[in-house]
């Protein structure tokens, strides 16, 4: 197999992480917590308008997904073009299906 | 190291059941695919015999429905797709300069799940009736109320298990292309067949989940009394059509893109020219894959989606003609001015081009929504999709098989018999399907089991049947060719066509277990051709001769698939009434399902807890084999 080849790739990735340190991950972690707290707070506060709460929840959810994918799934790192491509592709197909089912079949 | 001596090497049947070698799995795919292709072909012959004259009673209406359903399903899922996978397995790692696919164990698992899924589906013939709702299994026809036998259950469960294998295979090829290219083999230096296989695998990854979900919903409706497609209970049968075609349309590109790839490799080899417009070819392939996901509703123009949706899907469908046209012209320009040799492989590839254009033209006609109201569910559609699937894919597969047969088996197929196959098959094909366009335009519906005399259908149907028999003759000559070839000793050169351009032609035919003694260094597109131009007889190695890490053979993929097969059968009959109390006990209490799933999960557990480090082939052994060769 291409053991040597893979080993070098692996080393490069490890190497890259070692320089980065935990700093960014701590920030990302705090950011994730804050996003969650905002979402909880929005619901706890009750508010006058349910639609407004739902919009806040959705915005927080999207940001949360981006943080999770970017930092914890390493999508912001180099060499992740292909995983991103396939994530976007999968999202595109899934989105098409859901929109189709909701808008076309049941409305 | 000690590994080399502790490895069990299986022989005979056990070797085939446990192999994880991509070259042997390719042969398994080819044999199984060929078997199902034969079954599907016999079904096609029976259909044509039934239709050769008006008011024929060769088969009953029910049997005819089963025949058309099983012909479509078998040919697409169990016939041509495995043969595509056979060629991908045999060629793709070699073209990349890799020693195997990324996940050899999964490769075996993919084959065995496909095989047992196909077996389950075909068992329906002897277990109470085959599926009879068409290969599209449209609800409500496919619902319990209108298909009360287990036919459609065989369809849902069989395709589900076989589809699992396809999905596994697709993911495996994606990982192989992304991670296992030889040094220097950038994406834009990959041979077109590898590119096409890569894109095809991506389509499989995105399209198969749709059919998986659809089949789960349909089997729940049928077996567990759910109501997803049941109007009376708030379900919607149109939903099935959408789900099916969200998968089904990309599926036809899963079928045709590998054929595009095959002939993009065959035509340059036998024209002694590089492929014209390589990068536009890659771009066109990607574009087809992308557009392929946005056209599914053109199968449903007549269900009443409204003019806006129909117009949009008309346009997106017609757009696909653009990248396809790019490809057609690229092939023509590749041949233009080349030193063309018409070997059987090249004959099939050359016949592919005009035949596929004809299928494409009727495709654009069908894409026009108003005209489609006239064509819909007539023999015009039947003619169209046979032009693209048989005239496109099957000609491409024949081309690929003749081209790579020496690499897979170490023997050249007989060219004279090959040319007989070509002429009988192609003439038979045109005879069968060209005339069906006109049958359709004159109003003959598809899927009818007989027709009245004196509607001008009689002669045309007779001609069509004669053509089909001629195609059968072509296929039989091909099988005879295989038998004759296999009875001769191996011993073709590395590069039997002498104009090989890609890496698979740099190694022995058939390749040794480890493919490349040293992984080659790739210095350009058409790596081998580039070395030949530079006056080299072989590739520059990218590594010293060293010990080669090999994956261990395993029986687990086979047993896991048997488990799924048992569970599938158990699930299908779980709500039946049995006169035998023992059978009732084990089926109605889901004991069979549990046993089947236990077998599969225990195998997964075994695979997870026992690390398998594989084994090594040492440099000394490589030398010994080198002497032998």
Automatic annotation (TrEMBL), chain A:
Main location: membrane
PANTHER family named in the record: CYTOCHROME BO(3) UBIQUINOL OXIDASE SUBUNIT 4
Membrane-protein topology: Multi-pass membrane protein
UniProt-recorded name of the protein: Cytochrome c oxidase subunit 4
Family: Belongs to the cytochrome c oxidase bacterial subunit 4 family.
UniProt keyword list: Cell membrane, Membrane, Transmembrane, Transmembrane helix
Transmembrane segments: 26-46, 52-72, 84-106
Source organism per UniProt: Paenibacillus sediminis
InterPro entries xref list: Cyt_c_oxidase_su4_prok, Cytochrome_c_oxidase_bac_sub4
Location in or out of the cell: Cell membrane
Highest taxon listed in the record's lineage: Bacteria
TrEMBL record, chain B:
Alphabetized Gene3D superfamilies for the sequence: 1.10.287.70, Cytochrome c oxidase-like, subunit I domain
InterPro entries, alphabetized: Cyt_c_oxase-like_su1_dom, Cyt_c_oxase-like_su1_sf, Cyt_C_Oxase_1, Cyt_c_Oxase_su1_BS, Cyt_c_oxidase_su1_bac
Transmembrane segments: 26-47, 67-92, 104-126, 157-180, 192-218, 238-263, 275-296, 308-333, 345-367, 379-405, 417-439, 459-484, 555-574, 586-606
CDD domains recorded: Ubiquinol_Oxidase_I
PROSITE patterns recorded: COX1, COX1_CUB
Recorded topology in the membrane: Multi-pass membrane protein
UniProt domain Cytochrome oxidase subunit I profile: residue ranges: 10-523
First-level EC class: translocase
UniProt EC number: 7.1.1.9
Role played: Cytochrome c oxidase is the component of the respiratory chain that catalyzes the reduction of oxygen to water. Subunits 1-3 form the functional core of the enzyme complex. CO I is the catalytic subunit of the enzyme. Electrons originating in cytochrome c are transferred via the copper A center of subunit 2 and heme A of subunit 1 to the bimetallic center formed by heme A3 and copper B.
Matching PANTHER family: CYTOCHROME C OXIDASE SUBUNIT 1
Name of the protein this chain belongs to: Cytochrome c oxidase subunit 1
Organism of provenance: Paenibacillus sediminis
